[in-house]
Amino acid sequence: MPVHKLILDDVFEEVRYSLIALHCTIEDYRLAYLLNKNLGITLSRKSSDLDHNNGKSTYSIFEWEDEKQLTTWSLVSNVCKIETYQQIDYQSLFDNQETIIKKTNLIPEYKRVNYFLKIDNQLNFSREKYILNNVLKIPQIATAYSIDSNKLKSKDNLIFS
């Protein structure tokens, strides 16, 4: 009996998006406000955070759907800080607990990046450069740059829907 092989390369098309890394130390809501103001967009906080590793780490996410351009803008935090308690076994009268803060990243390849701005719709080079220049005009942002999403190892973490 012959073996039939299905090739599905043409069926599932890769979703195209632009990804901008943002280095800054301000809170997520302040960054969303500044991006809204400088880019003319309307990012708003989603009702639930982005859940990763079955609730072990959560990342704040802001989203805006531009229905004119058929584009979805997402601002997501790359850093999650989890406070845990560790029992310290000193030979003392009292129980001692030490607070430990664990830091996890949504995209581990870019540990120093604080936020990612994901734009679901392949932009042409000049439009992406225009957005990047407007982001760099914000004084609270130390630096911002485009990332080639095809070279990411953990690009599955950027699927929000």
UniProtKB/TrEMBL annotation:
Matches recorded under InterPro entries: IPExxxVDY_fam
Domain of life: Bacteria
Protein name: IPExxxVDY family protein
Source species: Algibacter aquimarinus
